[in-house]
Amino acid sequence: MAITAGMVKDLREMTGAGMMDCKKALAETDGDMDKAVEFLREKGLAAAEKKAGRIAAEGICATNVSADGKVAAIVEVNSETDFVAKNDTFRTFVDNVAAQAAATTVTDIDAFLAEPWSLDASKTVKDELASQIAVIGENMNIRRFEKIVTENGFVESYIHSGGRIGILVEMEASEVNATAKECAKNIAMQVAAMNPKYVDQSEVPAEYIEHEKEILKVQAMNDPANANKPENIIDKMLVGRLNKQLKEICLVDQVYVKDGDLTVAKYVESVAKELGATLKIKRFVRFETGEGIEKKSEDFAAEVAKQMGM
């Protein structure tokens, strides 16, 4: 496959690697972007996570939490432009979608779109979406939602950057008061800022760990400084590097952003001790507008058309 300047630019934006390194990676992998990312990681030239700089889809995330904190939902609704994403009519519609998601009993987006619209049962959610598209004059897409129902605690929400990022945090708690809620809000802000993938290491899939071990091992073997080191020494080095990486992706092991002397786990423990109560992070949901969508406008239109049954 011919390697174009555009492909090199895209890979550089995704990984932060140098231009020539990106060109070589694409050449070595026959233009396969995912394999090129892996190639750069093995050479120690790229981060584990792709950068999100090329994500084109606009829109906002919104949350809806019941007064008692027992039921909560988060949604992402996309638009074509940032201008529409800031429109009050659009934002009101997204808030109504979040309320619908908090009340729904379905779990997949197709069933959600097919159910009666809560503000007008003569319409479906899909019908209301079509109406809003006609009013606003721009393609829109209800991309995803998630609902949390908790019994032994509460859910706290946080919206960052005007809806660019939305967070739900479920806390297990024996006592719910302002201090516990403030703790949960701080945790939600941590999730927004640091983008963890899991609550703790028990949630990390075994295949992920094995894959990262392989990547780290290739990196170590390619490092001239390790040329004369025995394999068992290199293996010990890998354990340290892997543990460091896991601490970055597991919420409770991350350094707490508001107090660098604490981990998130230690922060929650300190609040629980202050309350004289049980307080534990059970799970979190993090939506970032457009994450994972690397698409041109015509692709966005095709996704909307598919959802609308056109």
Automatic annotation (TrEMBL):
Location(s) in or outside the cell: Cytoplasm
UniProt keyword terms in alphabetical order: Cytoplasm, Elongation factor, Protein biosynthesis
Keyword Oxidoreductase set for record: no
Superkingdom classification of source: Bacteria
Pfam entry (one): EF_TS
Transmembrane segments: none
Family, similarity comment: Belongs to the EF-Ts family.
Protein name, as recorded: Elongation factor Ts
